[in-house]
Amino acid sequence: MNITKVLDAKGLACPMPIVKTKKAINEIQTGEILEVMATDKGAKNDLSAWAASTGHELVDSKEENGVFTFYIRKG
């Protein structure tokens, strides 16, 4: 997977991971991938729902040591 931009949203509480993700996704081109790292447990549901409702694709996600990592392809 070719990551275009990385967003570190660790330590931020809802809704800041979504706010920062929206800003970051606007800085990349359609088809490029944004990697988002967050520690807020709510981000798992929030980011997948946000991606679906805004026309972006949640390509993959994982959790490791309390850090959630999401890969979002800009639609």
CATH topology: Translation Initiation Factor IF3
Second rung of CATH, namely the architecture: 2-Layer Sandwich
| CA-atom Rg in angstroms | 11 Å
The overall strand count is 4
The structural domain count equals: 1
CATH class wording: Alpha Beta
Our count of helices gives 2
CATH H level, superfamily name: TusA-like domain
- Report how far apart the termini are: 16 Å
* Proportion of helical residues: 25-40%
- For the largest beta sheet, what order do the strands appear in spatially? 1-2-4-3
Sheet with the most strands, sense and barrel status: 4 strands, mixed
Approximate strand percentage:
35-45%
Broad shape: globular
Q: How do the helices and strands follow one another from N- to C-terminus? A: EHEHEE
Quick synopsis:
This protein is α+β, with helices and mostly antiparallel strands.
Structural description of this entry:
The structure is a single chain. By secondary structure, this protein is α+β, with helices and mostly antiparallel strands. It has a single domain (3-73), classed as Translation Initiation Factor IF3 (2-Layer Sandwich), CATH 3.30.110. Helices cover 29% and strands 37% of the residues. The protein has helices at 16-25, 43-54, and strands spanning 3-9, 33-38, 57-64, 67-73. The chain has a four-stranded mixed beta sheet, covered by helices on one side. The radius of gyration is 11 Å and the shape is globular.
